[in-house]
Every structure is written in C-alpha cells, then in structure tokens.
Fold these 3 entries.
Entry 1:
Amino acid sequence: MLRIRRIEEAIVRLYPLHEMRCPTHLCIGQEAVPVGISAHLRQDDLVFSGHRSHGHYLAKGGDLKSMLAELYGRSGGCAGGRGGSQHLIDLSAGFVASAPILSGTVPIAVGAAWGIKQRREDRVALVYFGDGATEEGIFHESVNYAAVHCLPAIFICENNLYSVHSAMNVRQPEGRNIADVGAAHAVRSDIIDGNDIEAVWRHGRDAVNRARTGQGPTLLECMTYRLLEHCGPREDGELGYREAAEIEFWKARCPVIRSETLLRQEDLLSDSDLKGLEMSFADEIDRAVEFARASPFPDPAEMADFTYPVQK
Ligand SMILES: Cc1ncc(C[n+]2csc(CCOP(=O)(O)OP(=O)(O)O)c2C)c(N)n1
Ligand SMILES: [Mg+2]
C-alpha cells in the first residue's frame, strides 16, 4: 500500500509539469482494496479494471516503468504510449486490460471467466469498478450471466460514494446497497470496510477460494474514499460537493496510516523497516521516472497501427 501511495504521490508532484498529458485518476485513499485482494491472486489469474486503475495494476505485479512511460505517452509505455493512464495492460502479470468506458471491462472479465470454465482451468477472472459503473446496464447483465453459469468471476466494487461530483443519494435508491444488487442476482455479496486491509484480505481470500473451487462468483462492495479530485493531482475541497468534515473523516481512516499503526502496535514494523521501505520505493520510482522520460515518443508513421482501416 505504501509503495502504491508513494507512486501516486510522485505523479501528484510531476503531473503539473505538463509532461504527462493524459487524464489521470489517482487512487490515493483506496490502496487497501487491490492490495488485500491481490494477496490471493496468482500470476495467471486475470484482472480487469477501469479508469482508476494504477493500484489494481501495481498490486497485480504490473511493471512500474512501463506504467509511467504510458502516462508520459512514450513508446516504452505498456500500451505503446497510445492509451495513457486509463489503458494500462501487462499481460505477463495477468493484468489484461483497463478501459475508461464505465463497466466496459465487466463483461470482458465475465467472458474471460467463461473461457476459464470452458477450459476447466482453476484460474479466476476479477474485475474492479466503481459505484458509478454499477449504473450501466451491462453491469447487471454481466453479474446475472456469471451467476447463471456459476463462473469463476469476482466483482470488486470500490464504492467511494461519488461518481465524479454526484453523491450516491442522487443516483441510487436510498437504503439499497450495491451488494443487494449482487444478491438479487443470486451472487454471494458482502459489504466491507475497504480501508481495512485485514477485512479486504479475509473477504478476498474467500472470494478467490470460491471462484477457484467451482463455487461461483462473488461481489464485494468495498466502502472507501478517494482523497483527491476525481481526475487530476489536486485536492478539491473548494468545489463544495463534499463536506470538509467528510473529507477529514476519511483522511483519519487512511488505510496506509491505519496499517502502519496496527503493525507498530503488534511490533511488526520498526522505524528502520519503514526507512528501508521508503528508500527502496524512492529509488525505484526515480529510476522508473527516468526510464519514462528517456523513452522516445511513438513514431507518427505508426499512428494508424492497431486501428480499424479507413474504408476508401
Ligand atoms: C459509459 C460512460 N459514461 C460516462 C463516463 C464518464 N465518467 C468517467 S469516470 C465517471 C465516474 C465514475 O464513477 P465510479 O464508477 O464511481 O468510479 P470512481 O471515479 O468514483 O472511481 C464518469 C461518469 C464514462 N467514462 N463512461
Ligand atoms: Mg465512485
């Protein structure tokens, strides 16, 4: 979690230099979800995500250098510099795709789970999405399909209470949880504290076990909060769509600080451990930024590659 936090903070510092030009949705405050879940995933399990995907990619083992080069729009980027922050991919780590069309990767993950089942493999397919993504019709079709066919699919909803600047109460019925929607499709569904790494770890373990052993899909509604603006490197308290007290409440529930406190209480983390981690992350991040900035821009002659040919 600390590594992801430091990487996101490096982007916060570097983004205003205008060398990264892609829309970038940071996950500061939400790190416990992918870290607790990924602890149970194998390299050959398949992970999908949406626009806010840095933590998901990194926790699955996605390469940092090619992620940063992608944000810098360089040919050394994981999508060749063509996609930016919202199109991360690292097939060698089993991170198959992220794409910003809300819920767009949910049916793709279900298709991957269907393929896994057809081939009788013991892999799982897992997709991360936000509370807003559950308002897309395809989300409901996908969860239903996974239930009907008892697929090894795992649906991880990061409910951070907002879709851009719209709160839940103007978008979804009062008192109906997203986990209730999963349950209505007969999918095992739980609401958990997404900022509590232990809770995420436990529920993640159970979801992965169920999927791997043929017991079908699980939906986890992980309650969490993004501490920065929807898209970009700044705080956004001045916009007024979130109460200052609410932001403070969630800052106090920061998953990184909570875990640090817990580990120190249990005598599992010392000052020198932390210093060692900080130094190794700082060094790794410096080297990745250097790699990204030294990587050339894609050749304009290749601009149309990988696109549908224009009919003349
Ligand atoms: C189909 C579709 N509609 C609208 C958008 C514009 N859009 C981008 S992010 C976003 C909010 C998403 O909210 P949520 O799913 O809760 O994820 P969060 O940003 O909170 O992590 C919207 C509406 C989009 N990308 N795709
Ligand atoms: Mg949201």
Entry 2:
Amino acid sequence: MATRRAIGIDLGGTNLRGAQVEIDGQSARIVEQHRYEVGDERNPAAVAKALASLVDELIPDARVPVGIGLAGMLRGTGGMVANAPNLGWREVPFGTLVASELGRPVWLENDLSAICWGEYRFGAARGFRHVVCVFVGTGVGGGAVINGRPDRGAGNVSLEIGHVKIEHTDGRRGDCGQRGCLEAYAGGRPLAEQARELASPRLLALVDGDRERLHGGHLDQAARAGCAESCDVIERAGRELGRVLADVTTLLNPDCVLLGGTVWEGCPRLAEVCKQEFEACVTPAARPWMQLIEATLGDDAGVLGAAGLALSEGIDHC
Ligand SMILES: [Zn+2]
C-alpha cells in the first residue's frame, strides 16, 4: 500500500500540537511536529489563526488533509463546538473558522474519537473490531470503534462517558454545568478540588503544607498510606468508573476496552478499585469476549488518529 500523508492536530486546553504523519498500512510515523502553548489567548479566531500557520509550517500543500482532535463536545459534523470547557468555548463554529483561515477543508473530531482511532489503527487496540476507549485525565472522555468504523452517534456525541449520571439528586457540579456526572467524581480537576477541600494532615505532608499543589495523585498516595478520607474519595471515583465501564460493556459487547489518561496512570488505587468493580458488575455474557487493556501510544495517539481520520479511513465524514 502506498504511503499517505496527512496532518494531525491535537488541540487541548493548554496545548496546540500539530504533526505531519506518514501512514503506511498498519504503521504511522510522525515526520515532523510543532507544539504551542495556547496560553490565555483562547479567542477562537486567534486559535484558528495559530492553527492555520502551524499547518502551513508543516505542509503548505493544500492537497494534504488536516484532521483536528479537540477536547470538547461537538455538535453534528459541520465543525461546530458545542462546549469546550478547557478552552472556555460554547457554540463556536471552529471548523468553519479554521477552514476559512486555511482555505481548505478540515475534519474536526472530538479528541477521544481521534485517540481511539489512533490506538485502534496503530496502537494497543490493533486487531480488535469493537473498541471502547476511555481516558481519565482532566475530565473523563470516551470514544468507540464499532465493527472497524469510528462511531460518532447521530449528533457526533456518542460515548460521552464522562456525562453519565451517577448521582441523580444534588451531585457535584461538573465543568459541563450539570450535576452528578461521572466526570465530576473521577476527573482530574474535581479530584484535585476534593483533595484541596479535604487537605488532611497526610495529604498536606505530601506537598510541604502547600494545599494548592494537591491533585488526584496525592489522594491516591494518601489513601494507600492509610488516610481514610482520601481513600473514600479515590475509591468512590474508581468504583463509579468501574460500574460505568461495566454498563458500557454490557450495552455494546466490545472486544476491547482501552484505558488511559493521566489520572488512570497516576492513581493505581483508583485503577485497582475500578477493575474490581468492573468485574463485579459486568454482565457475564459479555465478559468472555472482551479484554481490558491500556493505551500504548501516549500523547501521540491523538495526532496519529486525527491524521488517519482526515484520510477518510473507511468512514463517512459528512
Ligand atoms: Zn456532565
């Protein structure tokens, strides 16, 4: 198969990263990449301009397709960002802004759809057909490949697993504005908030008394050192995550559930409780078909997946 080229972009809350990617069958290679701090200038038009000049630096050739994975909830397939809390955006037609800056079409994807496609095509989930990918980082995001195709649902918001309600009355309020979402319990930002709220002696000892430095990893560490309050928070997060993963497995019958993200990697107690709860709650009929694995591409999954998706790999974009 001939080598094909595309540009993959990963736009998070703080970083804009772009890579020129060469794809040859089952392998992908980053040829060149650039990274910028988004900083405080999160005005959509300014970010679109920065993104366009990044693309021009990588490959000015307008025939090379551009895929963007963006940390936010999209609406439909026209490039509309409904809500991107990390960027402070609501109802921003970002795909259109970038396309007019660049003078060529771009494919805008949810970041987890891009990561999921990256791991499915080139990473740990290669060889599976029905993949659910869940990342626990600042928030909790999900993506899926169903029967070898990226699944976006009717409105491009499928597998928004962070917004599954786990508390129906009076739950914690999340970045999305709703109460009781999984993300408000298991996401990195709310875990850090809870660590600062708790500020137990054992937690404070981990950061030389500087409460502001506390994050989810400290809760996990304090829990393993015997801090009962930290244990409650981190184990609840793991338990709720495990239950939701079990429900998703029961509903979709995937052959692979792939996990990753900074909180997943940095909170071993959370991960352990999650796996136990998952095994306790999953429907036995779905369990034998499925493997629970961990992401292997790290930060590269997003740009590789976005590049792959921009090449229309077996998918209908619009
Ligand atoms: Zn939510």
Entry 3:
Amino acid sequence: MSQLTIERRHDDINLSADELWTGSPELREQQFAILRRERSVSWQTPMMTPTMKLMGLKPPPGYWAIVAHRDVSTVSRTTDVFASSVGGVMFEDLPPVMLDQAFLLSMDEPKHGKYRRTVSSVFTPKRLKTIQEQISNQARIVVDDIATCTGEIEFVSSVSERLPMWTISEMLGIPEEMREEIRYAANTIISWNDPDFLQGRDPITLMMTAIGTLQQRCFELIEARHRKPEDDLMSALIAAEVDGHRLDDNDIYNFFALLCAAGNDTTKQTTTHTVRALSQNPDQRDYLLADIDGRIDTAIEEFLRWASPVMNFRRTALREFEIGGVTIQPGEQAVMFYTSANRDESVFDAPNQFNITRKPNPHLAFGGGGPHYCLGAHVAKMQLKAVITELYRRLPDLTVVDEPEYLESNFINGIKRLHVRFTPERR
Ligand code: HEM
C-alpha cells in the first residue's frame, strides 16, 4: 500500500468533535443532514479520544465520512477495495488486545468466509427453534418481574439490559453461577469509554481485567464441554466442521467475546429507543396494539432504523476508489455512518418521522450489506419481537416520564437511563 502524501483541508463540520457524541442524537443528525445534502463524502479531522492519548496512539491525517445510504452500501459491499483486516474497524483506534476480540469483524475474504461458514453452521433450524423458545420464556420472566411493581421503573436496568446477555448465556450454555460475572465483564467491554461507568477508574486496566475474566471463564467452559458435550452452542462450536475447517479453542473464545460485545448493547439500545419512540407517538403505539401479531414484523424494521444502535464501522482502502465526487487513496480510512444512512431523505420519505408502517424499509442498522452483515440479525429480531410484544400486551399504557440520559459514545447510540410509568397488573 502506498504512503499517504495528499494534504487536504478538513471539513468545516467536524464529526470527531466530542459534543456530537455526548448529547442527543438530534444534534448529530442536523450535521449529517447538511453533509448528505452538500458533500456526501467529506474529509474529516481525525478522531483523538482521551484513551487514544493515554495509549500513545497517533491519529491518522484524517478519514473519509461516508454518510449517504448508497455510498455506505457501496463501501460495505466493495470488499476488494475496502478492507476490514487492516488498521481496525472501529471509528477510533483501539489497543491491539481489543482488535483481537473483533474476530470475524476484522477479517477479510477468503479467511472471513471460512470462519463465518463454520460458526454459522451451528445455527441449525432446530437450534434456532430452541433459541426462540428460550427468548420467549426470558421475555415473559423479564415482564413478570416488573408487571406487579409500583408502576414506575428505570427501564434500561429493569428491562432492556436483561434480555441480551441472558439469551447469549443460555444459548451458549453458560452455567448460572458464572452469568453475573460474565455479564459485568461484557458490559465493561462496551462501556469502557463512558466516564459515568469509569468513575475515575483507568479504562485500560478495567478493559484488561474484563478481557481476563471473559477468557478465564470461557476457557473453563470449553474444557468442560470437551470433556462432556452438552446440547448447547458451545459444544456445537467445538464439534463444528465445514469443508475440513474447525475452530480451535482460541477461535471459540474470540467468537464468544464478539457475541458478548455485538449481541449485548445493540438489542438493549434498540429496545429502549423503541419504548421511547412508541411513548412519544401514541398513535403509532395504538395502531400496533390493534393487531400486534399482524403488525410487529413490519414495525421491527422501523424500530431498527430509528434506533440505529451501531452508529458506524470503519474500513481501510486497499486501492484508489472514486465515490461521492472524491477519490479515496490507498491506506485511507472510510467511516460508514449507518445512523446517517438511515435518515437519508433520498431513500426514506420523511426520515425523521417514526413510522411503523414504513414498507419497504431498507435500513442499514445491521450494516450496509456484504459479507459482514450482522450474523445475529435473526436472533436480534426474535428478541425485539418477544420483548415488545410481551410488554405492550400486558402493560399497554407504558409511558416514558422523563428525558433520557444518553451514553457518551461515538459508536453506540445509547440511552443509559429512562424512567417509565404504567398501570401495574393486579397481583
Ligand atoms: C439490534 C441488534 C443488532 C444490531 C443493530 C447489529 C448490528 C451489527 C452491525 C452493524 C454489524 C456489522 C455489519 C458490517 O460490518 O457490515 C454487525 C455484525 C455482527 N453482529 Fe450484530 N447487531 C445486532 C445484534 C446482534 C446479535 C443479537 C448478535 C449475536 C447474538 C450479533 C452478532 C454479530 C456478529 C457475530 C457480527 C460480525 C459479523 C461478521 O463480521 O461477519 N449481532 N452487527
């Protein structure tokens, strides 16, 4: 790959500015709207987070911001130009130990395809049916636990964050006594940059401790399943073989860590954003409730578009490529902003309106297409369907009572706390 030699002016709209990622989504959407309209691919001031400073990482000269729906799809699908295995896939640079956890996300073809086919082989129709039953059961218990309380709860801790790690634990076969420790470590991996979570603690130490915990517990579990296989995903991953390719214990750990990161905050945040949107749009909620079974599948696509919980992923160009009126040079980074693509007015009518009847709804919440398209999309939809259906069937007047507290993150569109009220079920 050639050295970067071209000097360019950074765009006046600075997508790396802290204030864009610490406040409400509306603020960044205003900036994205200008960029989509006026310069859909722009050269940006590089991101430099406190953690990057702490680690002594040197920022690149800049990056290309890809904000239009069509361009995000193009970058995502043109994998012979835009690589995932070079320089990381996250918006900001991360320590090497974290890049290892990215597993599939940071591989290119043909290696990616080989691993993806092997891990995918364990999601047989029979296993998906079991996962579906587990999720329905979990959603029912989560709602049981709040339904007869005082009728006022903090929604994120009481509902949204309970289901995702529970699903992952149960499908992998993580024993009961390990679950809390693994849940905490998994949450650390995704919240390690949030000052509220850090409370003055050193992010690197916290991250290393969390990774250590996940590794130790996962290897214990792998060893136990080698000795005595069970009817769970962990045993299936150990036994999986596609075209002669098998996963070693390290691969299984990396996949486990990826599931803990990728399958956790994503569904959790979509659930919270959905409840807020349905509360702000009671006409939509009433429409859904009038035929929840018939309308939920279409509505889920809008929940995903609206929440866009994963806001971006990055690629690095391997060769010159023209897009959006600019020429990207080899070695330059391109950050795909799914959150902007999902508000693109050339694809979605009235994109800033939450509309659960929207159809078709070609949102890019699960990525812009291509080989890395979210492996957990099906499971995520099962979870959203189960939890939203269970909640609104039993607590139809569920209403948000205050403004959300947003997560400070340039990656996850997150709400940390949201208070809701509802008429409790009779005991
Ligand atoms: C609302 C929920 C979710 C959203 C919005 C979401 C979004 C995404 C996105 C944007 C990607 C990257 C796509 C790309 O680079 O083209 C991704 C990849 C991935 N997701 Fe999800 N995800 C969700 C839930 C889940 C769940 C529940 C799981 C697992 C149980 C999961 C597992 C994965 C894995 C393993 C990958 C890597 C795929 C690869 O690189 O081949 N995700 N997801």
